[in-house]
Structures are given as C-alpha cells and as structure tokens.
Specification:
- This protein has nine helices and eight strands.
- The chain is α/β, with parallel strands linked by helices and 210 residues long.
- It has a six-stranded parallel β-sheet with strand order 5-4-1-6-7-8, with helices on both faces. Strands 2-3 form a two-stranded antiparallel sheet.
C-alpha cells in the first residue's frame, strides 16, 4: 500500500493569495506607463499585472515595440513602490491562517514580484510566519517555470512530495506541475485544479488531507 508523504512545507503566492493587491499593482504599472508617455492599461493588462513578472508584463504590453519594453523595465526598477503598499489589503484571516499553519508546517512565499517581494513580508509583519521569500530576482526564470518552487525545496531540504503550493493563477498551477509539487487554487481563475478553495481560511481544513 502506498502511504502518502505528509506535507511539511506550504508555499504561498503573494498577490491574490495572501493579499488583495489589484489596486496597488494597477496604480504602480499605470504610473510606469504614464512616465513612459503611454496610455493606462486596458482590462487585459490589469489582469496580467496580477500574475506576471514586470519583464513578462512589459513584453506582453509592448510585444511589437521591444524598445519600449526595455524603457518600461528601467522606469519600473527606479520607481519606488513604497506609496503603493497602502493600497494592498491582507486577505481575511491571513494572520490567523499563518499562525495556525506555523505550528505544523514550514512556510514560504514564492512570487513573481521582484524588488518588493521581501519588503511585502516586512511591511505587513509576516516575518514571524514566513521563513523564506523567493522572488523573481532570486532565480533564473519566473513562473510558470519551476525555479522558485525548486529553490524553496532546496532551502528546506525537501522532496517535491513534501510540499504544497497555494496560488490563484494558471502560471502558479503550471509552476507547481513543473516542480512536481501539489497545488491548491484560490478562486476560480485556474482551469480544473484538483484542489480549489474559495478563501484562504479554507486552507486549514484542506491541508491535513493532502
């Protein structure tokens, strides 16, 4: 009889999972575009900026104008995200969920954020719970590649079967699949996941069963 490996590590995406950050990200990237002399993002761009790394977003927005993508990247790197943290909101029960999990699991965050990845943890006082933060600047490739999740596994010395990734986008599911890590989708954006929850609080009932 095959006995399932007990999960020992829970890895979270940031935007859309731990935080409601749509307002912050849209405002930040629209400011980048304003400084670039370009119009604000359309609905497609506003959706994309919740999942993609900055470089991926600019490549998408300026697929036919790579020189603008390069300029946008430079502007974004120089632009202070500080004023935009106040537009982010922790998900309901965030701290209670992390505190409950922390007793039995190691916790990490893997996000396509770049320079703001670690700062989000400090700004919202997640340090007592999240032991490791991996952002796009810490690995060779962003999601949907598995690099971030593999970095987490290596840090904790765990095999993929011992970890779980919680995300809200298809690229999160694709990264988990590529890393051979179990996946839980928050919300309805991911196509046909094996495990789906409506809110972060639902994770407490699901994790022990996986």
């Amino acid at each position: 009889i095959d006995v399932p490996v007990a999960k020992r590590l829970v890895i979270f995406d940031c935007d859309g999972v731990l935080f409601r950050s749509e307002r912050a990200n849209v405002a930040f990237y629209n400011e980048v575009l304003r400084r670039l002399g370009e119009p604000a993002m359309d609905v497609h761009g506003e959706t994309a900026c919740q999942a993609l790394a900055s470089s991926q977003l600019f490549e998408s927005l300026f697929a036919d104008r790579p020189e603008l993508a390069d300029r946008a990247r430079s502007i974004a790197q120089a632009l202070d995200y500080g004023p935009y943290y106040a537009l982010m909101s922790p998900q309901q029960d965030l701290y209670d969920v992390l505190a409950s999990l922390r007793g039995d699991y190691r916790l990490a965050m893997a996000t396509n954020r770049g320079k703001t990845a670690a700062t989000v943890v400090r700004y919202f006082a997640l340090d007592p719970y999240v032991e490791l933060t991996v952002g796009v600047l810490d690995v060779a490739r962003p999601k949907p590649h598995p690099d971030m999740l593999e970095r987490c596994l290596g840090h904790f010395g765990l095999e993929p079967e011992a970890a779980l990734y919680v995300g809200d986008q298809q690229i999160d599911a694709d990264a988990a699949f590529a890393a051979r890590v179990s996946f839980v989708a928050v919300g309805a954006a991911v196509k046909s996941p094996a495990n789906r929850i409506d809110s972060l609080g639902d994770l407490l009932q699901l994790v022990p069963k996986l």
